[in-house]
Amino acid sequence: MCPSSRLPTLRARPGSRRIQPSEGEPILEKPPAATQRDTRRLHFDAVIFDHDNTLADATRVGEDLFQPAFDAVLGKVSAQNRADKPYMDKLTRAFAACWFTAFDAVAKSHDFTADMTDAGKKAFTEIQVKKESGYAPYRDAYLVPLIHAHMPCFLVTSGFQKLQESKIDVLGMRPWFDEFIVDRVDVAGASHGKKVVFADIVKRHGFKHERVLVVGDNPVSEIKAGNELGMHTVQVLRPRVEWSNDANAHIFTLAQLWPLIGLGDDAPEPAHK
Ligand SMILES: [Mg+2]
How far does the centroid of ligand 1 lie from the alpha carbon of residue 206, in Å? Predict the structure, then answer.
């Protein structure tokens, strides 16, 4: 018997490529390459998603996960500063900011010394999310692969390579995107900033800037980058995220992307309902 005759047949989406299975492997479907999908009836040609606090709560990795890095930073604080309450309060605020903003940006904006920054970076470089941590995406994240079936999707995240990759792998999200890019801050000179990364995506795939939708939480990161490039920016107002007037639109759930993209009035319900 031919191997494929024993396997369930999946209906291919128009334009999708069927990957022929070898013996014992399931039939897989892969979305067409980013520039091949027909998005003419939609309002956008591609979506660029942020990860932390957009698709998953950054603190769900477990609040102890970053402690080795915070301890490393603290180890470089002078005795004089340790005794200075306003200084230590500012440092506490800096650590809290690390759940929303990449460490190097926090270090810069909170005036960390070079020693503090280096010690924190070194510790962060080794931190990874473990499968058993209970890390999970927001409940509406199941909508991302459904959007991906219609149009190219990209995931662009800033941070430490190992940490960000471990998050995506624990959540099994890689197949949801045409590309997953970490703007890595752990190697000197490797970080280009999201504006450069977004511009590169647009150039390589031949998108028009105004036909790219940027979805994220952070007004000084992906929202700023998208605005500067003339993209349409949407801020997701997750818990603890403050409304920013800089975004072109605001949503509370990814379901609100459906009418915005032109996919219909209502997003599909989760499959288990
Ligand atoms: Mg974010």
Answer: 26
**d(CA 230, ligand 1 centre) in Å:** 20
The reported pLDDT for the residue numbered 187 is: 80
Residues 201 and 224 in one domain: yes
Distance 153 CA to ligand 1 centre (A): 16
Element (H, E) at 121: helix 114-125
pLDDT class for 31, splitting at 50, 70, 90? low
Ligand 1 centroid distance, CA of 100 (Å)? 6
For residue 103, tell me if it sits in a domain.
Answer: yes
Q: Which residues of 189-212 are buried (b: 16+ CB within 10 A; e: fewer)?
A: eebeebbebbbebbeebebeeebb
- pLDDT (0 to 100) of residue 171: 95
Residue 222 placed within a domain: yes
DSSP-assigned beta bridge partners for residue 179: 154
Distance 179 CA to ligand 1 centre (A): 17
What's residue 33's pLDDT?
Answer: 74
State the average pLDDT over residues 65-77.
95
Q: Quote the ligand 1 centre to 217 CA distance (angstroms).
A: 5
Residue 267 lies inside a defined structural domain of this protein: no
What is the 50 CA–ligand 1 centroid distance (Å)?
Answer: 6
Total-model pTM:
0.81
The boundaries of the domain holding residue 149 are: 31-58+136-261
**Phi, psi for 198 (deg, rounded to 5):** -65, -45
Q: Tell me, what's the pLDDT at 16?
A: 37
